[in-house]
Protein: Ornithine carbamoyltransferase
Amino acid sequence: MINSSSNKKINMRHFLELKDFSKEEIIYVLNRAIFIKDKFKKYEPHMPLHDRTLAMIFEKASTRTRVSFEAGIYQMGGCAINLTSNDSQLGRSEPIEDTARVISRMVDIVMIRTFEQERLKRFAAHSRVPVINGLTNEFHPCQILADILTFIEHRGSIENKKVAWIGDANNMSYTWLQAAEILGFTLHISAPNGYKMEKNRIGNISDKILRQFDSPYEACKGVDLVTTDVWTSMGYEEENIIRHKAFSDWCVNSKMMSSANTDALFMHCLPAHRGEEVTNDVLEGPQSVVWDEAENRLHIQKALMEFLLLGKL
Ligand code: CP
Ligand code: NVA
Structure:
């Protein structure tokens, strides 16, 4: 593939999970996001993706992902096309492979939010252009990039720090685990029985990277960041009642926050359910950086699209 703006040859890459990128590439994208954000704040145009088209495919609902990708590509000089299962032939059983072959002949880059990671991989295997994971049942890598950017802005490097994940072993926590392995920090996890990380997904991992706790208060002890997510992720709605019973003691409250370091941050990918996975006072409190975290989806994804389309600049 030739990048027309610089005539530089770029090897086509996808971003299907965080570990598709090396540590050095993640750090590049983070630094680039800081540069792009700074220009955005000064109202300086940054339009390296002039005339490029992003197709967004949503098979699940979204607010932040939709707006940040669409605004991001416009701000870089390109445009976006939004497709959902309801208003495309995907909802009428057109195979994902055929959809990939067609769409990727017409656009420059694709972002997909879907169910199984396998479905995303099938799309990517038949795509001529880079594909970005906008959330699957297994991973949410764009969100974790934004979270790490937010941590860096508030506290500096995340290397050798401690992060507590309070709640479900879901797309967010498994992506945090990949981040801990790549960037070198320790992830503390506490979830009720039946909702802990699966052995076959984590393998033999060092306790420098992952430590699991029965008590969420113990998991928060001495950490630099406390983070959580909804008890029921999209696609698991039929488990809602049983999950509400199981997770009732896994609500991040001010007592849990007080067992973390005094300067610990609180993050949540949003949308949040106040009074369930987090109390209103923590979500709205001085340690919470959830609004910066949401905004950073815009900046990090601009850096990500630029990197996938143009390589390192
Ligand atoms: N955090 C996140 O991905 O939000 P949306 O579901 O609104 O896109
Ligand atoms: N784990 C949540 C994240 C939403 C952004 C879900 O998959 O619904």
User: Anything to note?
Assistant: The chain has two domains: 2-140+294-310, 143-289.
